[in-house]
Amino acid sequence: MGQLIRPFFLLLSFLTLAGCSVLGPGFPDERIVRERVLLPDIPFYAQEDYQCGPAALAMLLAWNGEALLLPALTGQVYSPSLEGSLQPAIVAAARRYGYLVYPLDQPEALFGELAAGHPVLVLQNLGLTRMPRWHYAVVIGHDPEQKRIFLHSGRREAMGMSARLFGRTWARAGHWAVVVLPPERLPATAGESSFLAAAVGLEQAGQWSAALLAYQAALERWPDSFGARVGLGNVRYTLADYEGAQRAFRQALLLQPANGAVMNNLALALAAAGYRQEALVVIGQGLELDETWRQELLRTRQKIVADQPWAEGGNEQN
Fold it and tell me: Which superfamily does 12-181 belong to?
């Protein structure tokens, strides 16, 4: 079977989306945060030495309803040689459970997620810039009047911290923060490109069914999303739902009629379903309309012509 093209704008890495934004040392503007929030029933796991990463992730997974044992999760996330946990390991572990990991690209988004009832996993530097002491915690609330942030942190449940101190420790860690949610549930502050990148992360983890749910959720929010339709087609193709893949790619072509990458993928889906001649027609259209994908389209045409199982398919159209 041929190789799908996944257009470059969908192959965004998680780390490039967890960038830094500027938040002052105090509490955000009162127009952004007006009401006190303290999320109830957020599970708490006290950390062992240097194991704040596994403990923080365990809280979010348990909040999502996962029955898990902290020692098993620790083995996936914690690095004894580093005496800590790296962000990519935390992200990868959450994806292995089938959850969407969405980075908050603006510090103010933290308060939007809390208002929606979503706890937020954050990284802090409790030391100095030159002598960092990294620490993961789960933000569960805030009080704008008292200027305090509430966290499950270390061995302390619902710990209060001054907003000024939290802002400084969070800023020293680059304002890294994520929410971990079921793939069909959009973050309150979701942006289209960032959400699609998070869905791609599920694909890269081999969580195809979860990625399918994420792309479907994206289309409910952004019905004209070209990227979501391409992603949906790619996942359906991987799951051998070739008819569904064809529908998704055709809908994507309604938005970008001359996109050679999508034509290539549509041809692959047609050929896999047995529509070999129609697939070759689509390849020909792609060669006429999009020179940038010429070499890949030619390789796909060669594959379709040479692949005898497809040529013998029962759905051939003359």
Answer: Cysteine proteinases (3.90.70.10)
